[in-house]
Amino acid sequence: MSAVETIHVNGAWQAAASGAQREVLDPADAKTLALVAEGGVADTDAAVAAARRAFDEGAWPRTPVAERAALLRRVADLLQRDREAIALTESRDTGKTLEEGRVDVDDVTNAFRYFADLVMNESGGRVVDAGSPDVHSVVVYEPVGVCAMITPWNYPLLQASWKIAPALAAGNTFVIKPSEVTPLSTVHLMKLLVEAGLPAGVGNVVTGSGDPVGARLAEHPDVDLVSFTGGLASGTKVMEAAAASVKKVALELGGKNPNVVFADACATEEGFDTAVDQALNAAFIHSGQVCSAGARLIIEDSVRDRFVAELARRAERIKLGRGTEPGVECGPLVSAAQLAKTERYVAAALAEGASLRCGGSRPEPSQIRPATGYFYSPTVLDHCHGEMSVVREETFGPILTVETFHTEDEAVALANDTEYGLAGAVWTTDAGRARRVAGRLRHGTVWINDYHPYLPQAEWGGFGKSGIGRELGPSGLNEYREPKHIYQNLAPRPVRWFGG
């Protein structure tokens, strides 16, 4: 396999049909990290055709569940074997720290093992009582068919696993298009699937840009389901393109996530320290390039001044640098475009009346190595309100906005004042308040006195413009299946509906 043979179709690695290539840049120094194939429509059509044949004519959809589960477990073992190499690839490709890359590999491993266990523990279908001893009625679940998967640049390996593992567990075939910015870990994962014994054509990869590869996948008449994780604008285009063939669509489109802190959570020094620390984690992990980032701090007025002052003090001390370097706490943004976008949001917020508490610029070259990367200082913007674009739109950068409330009702209203609804958190020592607020928040995941953990057993997805469908958990498996009702009459006899 050459450096530019990153397209995998029907069991073979190949270059793009056009011969086109793309540079993948290291965001820490803006230098070329790798060359990959720049696929197009022809490559996409070939991959879909291979997946279609593998589903319609191949053995995988009819492979016993135990064998499919065994393959997923082999992939999990191979992921742990290659843990350091994959984590390094993910760190260098996305800019995140090496430790974050290791956590990602472990989470991906857990996802493959979870879906293997889930399908193994299922029964043979749901028996339906038809009200007659002469009828046997059962609902069974079958694979959807050919699945198109389009994944984002911030968690390329993790998001690939959330789609590939349940799709294979259910008996589907797939074509995956990783982000053109961060494709390398998905290519590695495909190699492990092949090594684990995945039949030719069942899994296919096309590296390339959203237009034309992603667009073609979304509209392709031989694709039965498209699963997309990314931005709202691109997600709506995917949905529009998929509508013509009425294929199933699953979308995770990010969020503008509130982190609500009540004063009682800060009543002790330990509580205060924990809430501030978690607010930093919520906003600045992976430089804020997280769909569930707690980018909106909503803080009770009585503790606001002290809390924001300490938050800004600690944010200023976050150590930036190349993610593979020891001691680095936050890496660069993924690209020059993302850096420019972050700068525009901060400039707009300041023009709209926000107060800059820390950050707000690129770090001085003398403060960071390498100085040529896409770095931006963690930024805290105070005195924000819901009319600001930085509060309403997903910034995907190291920007934390601060809003203030006085009452519980006001806190809930602020937290729900968003078109999105992916995730949110509430911090309080009042158990009753915690349950009340969590119940009122219109977000797919709500943390109480915590931020960011997720479980492969629990569904992930959002309300509103955060998307449709769910990943992970039993619902994440069912996204890749179709229910079928089988009704068997054990004692057929004439109906005599018509007298003739």
Automatic annotation (TrEMBL):
This is Aldehyde dehydrogenase family protein. Belongs to the aldehyde dehydrogenase family. Pfam families: Aldedh. The keyword NAD applies. Residues 13-486 form the Aldehyde dehydrogenase domain. Signal peptide: none annotated. It comes from Streptomyces silvisoli. It comes from the Bacteria. Keywords: NAD, Oxidoreductase. The active site is at 252.
